[in-house]
Amino acid sequence: MEERKVILDIHNFSIAFEQYENGFKKTSLPTIRELDVTIHEGEMVAVVGSSGSGKSLLAHGILGIQPYNATLGGEIIYDGEILTEERKAALRGNEIVLVPQSVAFLDPLMKIGPQIRKGKKDKASKEKLDGIFKGFHLKEEVQDLYPFEMSGGMNRRVLVSTAMMGNPRLVIADEPTPGLHMDMVRRVMAHFREMADNGAGVLLITHDLEQALEVADRVVVFYAGTTVEDADVKDFEKEENLRHPYSKALWRALPQNGFQFIDGTQPYVKDLPEGCPFGPRCKECTAECKKRIAYREVRGGRVRCIHAV
Amino acid sequence: MRHHLLFIGKNLIRMILLLFGVSVAAFILVSVSPIDPLQANVGQAALGSMSVEQIEKLQDYWGVGQPPLQRFLAWASDFFRGDMGISLLYRQPVLEVIKVKLANSLWLMCIAWVISGVVGFVLGIISGLKKDTWIDKLIKGYSLLIASTPAFWLALVLLMVFAVWLKVLPIGLSVPIGMEASGVTIGDKIQHAILPALTLSITGISNITLHTREKMIDIMESDYVLFARARGESTWSIVKNHGLRNVILPALTLQFGSISEIFGGSVLVEQIFSYPGLGQAAVTAGTGSDVPLLLGITVISAAIVFGGNLIANVLYGIVDPRIRRGGKRS
Q1: Nearest-by-Cβ selection for B241 from A89, A110, A148
Q2: What is residue B329's predicted lDDT score, i.e. its pLDDT?
Q3: Which residues on A lie below 8 Å from B229 (Cβ)?
């Protein structure tokens, strides 16, 4: 495969929240601690992690719509340049687009058509939307509906079409298929695959590893605010090809691999252990794991584990 | 069509029950009031110089000694026939008295209603958008301060400042003293309405502001505003496309619901400015045991307030597509 251009390179990214404990003590809550993701043009990368691991915040951080009391750290490089808050504001909705989880993200009192056009009434916007709707087999009447009047099938296509109004080069899909039937999931995923095949980078944020393996090119495993492994989808064919104990545990938990689960739960941000966040649940944990663990290349992927070979 | 008829019918029954309840309550309160109508309206000195026959005549006129139930039933049966009775104090049909007083009050209340609605709405939106900034703190501080200030006290302060110290506005009444009715200009009327209307507006604003602010904050923290931001919409675009659209519904309910508060406030404010409106007439009727007038005013006021709430309900159905279109589908 030819070398493709890197569209998004996130390095050592973190998001922390300032909080007041007991009203006096100011503490910083590092919801995302060390996150590294690289996306090339035409590539679909899935960030997989269980709920509460800070996945949605990643999307908001890239778009610059994080809550006002959040502090971002690390570096995001988009299209070769550092992605500053000003650049985020200029690019979001046009080059960098978000596809949300559900129609709850649409204004309940605004008709679909005007809402997708962001209230614009010019001919160019109208024609563009008409074209997108045609491509999705959505009838023109749908533009006159309110969000509550749409069927489940329409919802998905409408949400995806919001992303097409700009000229997306990076698509961020935040749990785009919660609670959907598998057929529907495949159809929605096909839209994202198509966008990637047309040259956009797609960042799929999900808790569903099985789904990610079906459509993505690479999978980034995210645990308690940290990316622990970055692996090609093919690596998930065999447990031995995976590098991090948590990825292996995820693999074993897949239905076809025996539904095995490990003890314990993902630690809450406030109770994170020193060093490797997975340490307390890991059989291979040693004293060395209590130190800061570097993200390093192993067998063509990346891993944050000192024992990986 | 059937849906609409049902709606009208339901509300009509509701209104009749409400008016009946309100008039019963008002009547009971007047009946148990310790005020002796003769002492209050004729005076002890005058009564002392009257003969027994004269006093009996007066007692008959003021309904002293009649069983309350009988009095109420007599009033109610007349009312159902469209006769609101004769005011004992004004010696005119109650309907006539109310017409004149209401015309005075209505224009006062309308001004206050519109000003408090518009200003409160705008302040609430600004405050909600600029949450936790100095401007929000200023608006919120003002609203909380005014919300905890009694309307009559504020009226007195304004009266002292503008009428007594600065002498720029009249001290009371609705027209200049000693002027013929034909000589009164619109300018005079406006000048006399400024202070009472201002008092009512100032007190009305805080409630609308605080509610609108709260709703605006909810909207700005909603998922759909987050998504609009993710789609690159500017703050102004978000306010225009989503903020106003979503805040106008609760604001409508609030605005029509606030009629009752303006009505209540006007009773006190009119009393302080000696403004001859419905509120003042209600106080006079209450303290003077003018039962037909008091019941008439009570029923009319309740009907207006009920009407306001009804309008809010109807408008909601027209403005909110979820009710308008959702109702049609089911």
Answers
A1: A110
A2: 52
A3: 63, 65, 92
Residue B52 lies in domain:
2-80
Domain boundary among B47, B80, B113: B80
B86 part of a folded domain:
no
- Interface check A85 vs B, CB under 8 A: no
Best of A94, A105, A146, A164 to mutate (most B CBs within 10 Å, chain B): A105
| Domain residue extents for chain A | 6-95+167-303, 108-165
CB contact under 8 A, A106 and B229: no
- Radius of gyration (Cα) for chain B, nearest Å? 24
Q: How many angstroms separate the CA of residue A298 from the nearest CA in chain B?
A: 36
> Is residue B87, in this structure, part of any structural domain at all?
no
Distance between A96 CA and the closest CA of chain B, angstroms: 9
Establish whether this prediction's ipTM goes over 0.85.
yes
User: Token digits for B258?
Assistant: 């606030």
Instruction: Find, among A12, A8, A10, the residue nearest to A226 by Cα.
Output: A12
Low-confidence ranges of chain A (pLDDT < 70): 1-2, 23, 52
Pairwise CB contact (< 8 Å): A109 & B320: yes
Contact map slice: A 147-186 vs B, CB within 8 A: 148-149, 162, 165-166
Determine, yes or no, domain membership for B85. Answer: no
Cβ–Cβ contact B227 with A under 8 A: yes
List all residues of chain B from 237 to 256 with a beta carbon under 8 Å from chain A: 237, 240-242, 245-246, 249
Q: B98 and B75 in one domain?
A: no
Span B160-212, pLDDT tens digits:
888 788 877 777 777 777 777 677 777 777 777 788 888 888 888 998 999 99
Tell me how close the Cα of B140 comes to any Cα of chain A, in angstroms. Answer: 21
Q: Which of A270, A269, A231 is nearest to A250 (CA)?
A: A231
Run of H or E including B118: helix B94-129
Q: Do B72 and B117 fall into the same domain?
A: no
Domain assignment of residue B88, yes or no: no
pLDDT at A47: 92
Confirm or reject contact between A105 and chain B (CB < 8 A): yes
Nearest to B231 among A104, A146, A162 (CB): A162
Residue in chain A closest to B226 (alpha carbons) equals A65
Per residue in A58-94, pLDDT (tens digit) is: 999 999 998 888 889 889 999 989 999 999 999 998 8
Would you state the structure tokens that stand for residue B236, as one six-digit string? 């102004």
Contact A180, A20 (CB under 8 A): no
Instruction: Quickly count: other Cβ atoms within 10 Å of residue B242's Cβ.
Output: 25
Token pair 């003293």 is found at B177
Check whether residue B253 and residue B106 sit in a common domain.
yes
The total of structural domains in chain B comes to 2
pLDDT digits (tens, 9 = 90+) for B16-51: 899 889 988 888 888 787 777 767 666 677 767 777
Q: With b meaning 16 or more CB within 10 Å and e meaning fewer, what string describes A198-211?
A: eebbbbbbbbebeb
Q: How, if at all, do strands A301-303 and A226-232 pair?
A: antiparallel
Indicate whether B155 and B127 sit together in one domain.
yes
Q: Do the Cβ atoms of A65 and B237 come within 8 Å?
A: no
Last residue of a domain, one of B20, B47, B80: B80
Evaluate whether B224 touches B241 at the Cβ level (below 8 Å).
Answer: no
- pLDDT tens digits, residue range B275-325? 888 888 888 888 877 888 888 888 888 888 888 888 888 888 888 888 777
> Within this chain, do residues B321 and B172 fall inside the same structural domain, yes or no?
yes
Check whether residue B116 and residue B11 sit in a common domain.
no
Q: CA B320, CA B313: separation in Å to the nearest integer?
A: 11
The CATH code of the domain at A6-95+167-303 is: 3.40.50.300
Query: Hey, are the CB atoms on B224 and A93 less than 8 Å from each other?
Result: no
List the structure tokens of A95. Answer: 């080059």
Chain B residue with minimal CA distance to A62?
A: B230
pLDDT at B57: 77
A98 touches chain B (CB under 8 A): yes
The domain that contains B313 carries what CATH number?
Answer: 1.10.3720.10
Q: Are residues B56 and B105 in the same domain?
A: no
Whether B244 and B204 map to the same domain: the answer is: yes
